[in-house]
Structure to design on (555 residues):
């Protein structure tokens, strides 16, 4: 899985460099969709009687290794089907077509008018950006931010007394989530991965994420936010090998209303997370803009 | 007891022991009792290094004794005996690295800094511990180390990794970590001290008390050095309430941009 995700990211990252004509007819997908994907907009029924196991200090357990099972590609979260032709032309891979936005019902981000226009501009720019800042920040080698890191690839959750630790495979990103009720850090500090504070609501881990910078996107084709981004995540174990993740996303500078995104996580067989150096080998800006690292 | 320790140390120093053990470590080993009181322990009885730690030294700038220069604080040095035993060609390369350090230091590109340099960057790191794994998280470029203490061996190699492959074991209260599988692209400091991909480290984390760990690392690289050599320093526990790791993603510093919010 690791290598597939890595390869996919590498391929998608050179989108702007290869500049293939998107208007050519899409070849048939090379890989048929695997069985068992969970559609976030039409999820299976949950067993209300199932109770998650507990950790030694009594928290509901989310421990283990997980990956998204919702057929989501970070290429596009609003309408991946519409990006299909271009995506296949670039990667030759089966496009993943999961649509994680469950609210509003049309699956689209409720931009304010100026922001819709700016998003349209970024979308036009994404294959041939005129400036580095119009290129997907992850393709440039930067951290994913929230909630994107959660649908980027596999991750490991460890729980300690008073802390939930998430170690992501991609770009060795991590999150330390205190459960002790401490306040968020000063709002002058902006972070790529935000500032997380957690608490348990029944069997659901609720994580409040603030202090986000304005430099991360939700996907490659330009869905963006400002530094007023506020994410509330709900992580609910619903079966032995299944976590339902729902993020409520608020940003009064950019959206007309909060919107929600759902991703289903499936348990993986545990394996060691090996080094995933991203920035060190990244040549995307050099290839597109001729800059020197 | 104190006088006896001093005497032992004095003898060790005056005899100039061939393996070059330092006064500090010798003293630390003598004074750290095997069942030291006040050391947090896991349920399995191992020292529990959970917490946020940081060095207080100038090793990231220069591992050897050096006076202050522009933007570099002076330092007593962390190399036992102060000599880094380069082979002749390697010594010439080290000198060239030093002359051209501003351009050549891999950290100027904000790459993963390699080991052991990551351990003494002037940024905090946080440790979490399970019986099978010691996890270290670093503020510097959000680096991570997963040190497996479950008896597994290094994977079949050689693998070119920035931070190598780490396998740990407990020797009494000391966490001993064996590291191989490095690339040849990192330095030990900002002064050009370097290694090849044959780098092999043995790190030793020994608790002194609840808030201090002696960090001792043996460096071996037959392509670059004439013999193994050692560095030793102390990790200090951060006691500030609610302190947490922030971010130092320096590769993005030259790339600042902002969404044009009204």
């Amino acid at each position: 899985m690791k290598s597939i995700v890595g390869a996919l990211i590498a391929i998608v990252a050179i989108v702007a460099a290869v500049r293939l004509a998107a208007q050519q007819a899409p070849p048939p997908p090379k890989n048929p969709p695997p069985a068992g994907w969970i559609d976030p907009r039409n999820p299976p029924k949950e067993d209300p009687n199932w109770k998650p196991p507990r950790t030694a200090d009594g928290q509901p357990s989310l421990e283990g290794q997980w990956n998204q099972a919702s057929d989501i590609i970070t290429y596009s979260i609003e309408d991946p089907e519409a990006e299909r032709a271009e995506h296949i032309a670039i990667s030759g891979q089966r496009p993943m077509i999961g649509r994680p936005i469950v609210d509003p019902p049309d699956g689209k981000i409720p931009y304010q008018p100026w922001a819709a226009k700016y998003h349209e501009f970024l979308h036009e720019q994404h294959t041939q950006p005129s400036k580095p800042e119009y290129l997907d920040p992850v393709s440039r080698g930067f951290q994913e931010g929230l909630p994107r890191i959660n649908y980027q690839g596999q991750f490991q959750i460890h729980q300690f007394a008073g802390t939930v630790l998430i170690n992501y495979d991609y770009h060795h990103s991590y999150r330390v989530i205190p459960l002790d009720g401490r306040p968020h850090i000063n709002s002058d500090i902006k972070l790529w991965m935000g500032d997380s504070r957690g608490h348990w609501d029944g069997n659901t881990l609720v994580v409040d994420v603030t202090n986000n910078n304005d430099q991360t996107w939700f996907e490659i084709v330009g869905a963006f936010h400002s530094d007023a981004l506020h994410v509330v995540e709900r992580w609910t174990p619903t079966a032995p090998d299944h976590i339902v993740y729902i993020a409520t996303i608020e940003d009064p500078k950019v959206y007309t209303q909060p919107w929600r995104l759902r991703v289903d996580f499936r348990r993986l067989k545990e394996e060691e997370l090996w080094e995933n150096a991203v920035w060190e080998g990244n040549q995307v800006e050099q290839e597109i803009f001729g800059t020197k690292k | 007891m104190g006088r006896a320790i001093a005497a032992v140390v004095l003898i060790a120093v005056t005899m100039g022991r061939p393996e070059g053990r330092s006064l500090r470590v010798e003293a630390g080993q003598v004074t750290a009792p095997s069942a030291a009181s006040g050391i947090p322990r896991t349920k399995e009885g191992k020292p529990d290094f959970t917490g946020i730690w940081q060095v207080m030294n100038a090793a990231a700038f220069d591992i050897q004794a050096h006076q202050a220069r522009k933007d570099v604080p002076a330092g007593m040095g962390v190399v036992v005996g102060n000599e880094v035993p380069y082979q002749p060609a390697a010594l010439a390369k080290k000198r060239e690295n030093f002359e051209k350090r501003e351009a050549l230091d891999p950290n100027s590109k904000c790459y993963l800094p390699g080991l052991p340099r990551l351990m003494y960057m002037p940024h905090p790191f946080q440790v979490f511990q399970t019986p099978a794994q010691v996890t270290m998280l670093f503020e510097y470029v959000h680096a991570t180390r997963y040190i497996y203490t479950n008896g597994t061996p290094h994977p079949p190699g050689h693998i070119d990794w920035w931070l190598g492959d780490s396998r740990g074991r407990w020797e009494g209260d000391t966490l001993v970590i064996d590291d191989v599988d490095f690339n040849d692209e990192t330095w030990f400091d900002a002064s050009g001290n370097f290694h090849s991909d044959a780098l092999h480290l043995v790190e030793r984390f020994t608790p002194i008390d609840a808030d201090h760990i002696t960090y001792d690392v043996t460096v071996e690289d037959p392509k670059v050095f004439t013999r193994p050599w050692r560095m030793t320093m102390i990790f200090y526990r951060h006691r500030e309430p609610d302190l947490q790791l922030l971010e130092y993603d320096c590769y993005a510093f030259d790339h600042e941009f902002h969404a044009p919010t009204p």
In short: Chain A has a mean pLDDT of 87. Chain A has five helices and ten strands. The interface with chain B takes residues 114, 118, 132-133, 140-143, 158, 160, 163, 165, 167, 171-174, 176, 178, 182, 185, 189, 191-193, 214-215, 224-226, 228, 253-254, 272-275, 277, 279-280, 293 of chain A (CB under 8 Å). The longest strand of chain A covers residues 230-239.
